[in-house]
Structure formats: structure tokens, C-alpha cells
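[Automated response] Your request has been received and processed.

Submitted sequence:
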Amino acid sequence: MHGLLGLAGALLTLPALAQPAAEPCARARDPLRCEAREAALKTCAAKRGAEKSICLEAAMPPPDCRRAPDPRRCAAGQKAAEICRGKAGSELRQCLRKQQPPKTVRKPPAAAAA
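Generated structure:
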């Protein structure tokens, strides 16, 4: 009996599984950037390696830092990416590390004395 219920449940969910996600970007933090990313991935799909990275970078708009958890850090990251443009691999990582400000660690609020 349990086998039939499991089979029936699986059959009822098949239509939902067969349908592609209609709006993969609907629940994204930045839906416009998500849609641009999806379009860029389609545009650059045939390219590989550094050529694909350059294609994706050119096709993507910058993130909306107003919606970022730390807007100042986001803006600094955009500035660092602009300064380090054209570099790759370890040279790029080293440049970004040098340009990016350190993370700010939020301290938990002090516990009220009882």
C-alpha cells in the first residue's frame, strides 16, 4: 500500500518537475542583474576560458550596491575591479586583495547585566 501512495505522489509531482523554472530571477536580490547575467551566459555560451570571462565581464552590469549588505564595501569592490581590469589569475587576486578594504566585523550587542 505504501508503494502505491509513493508512486501516486511521485506521479502528481511530475508536471511540476517537467516545467522549467519560469522566473529563475524573480526571487533574486537584484532581479535586473540576474536577468542580465542569464542573457550574458547565453551570449557567451560558445566561448571558453579567458575569452568567456572577458565576454561575461563586458556583458554584465555592475551590481546595485544600494541593496548590498555593506554598500561601502560593495562600492569599494567595484572600484577594485575597475582598477584590476585586464589582469588574470594570481595577479588579479593579488590586485583585488590589495585594493579591497578589510571586512568589518560586527560585534554582537553586549548582553544586558542581570
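Summary generated for your ticket: DSSP finds five helices and no strands in the chain. Residues 2-18 form the longest helix (17 residues).
If you did not submit this request, please reply to this message.
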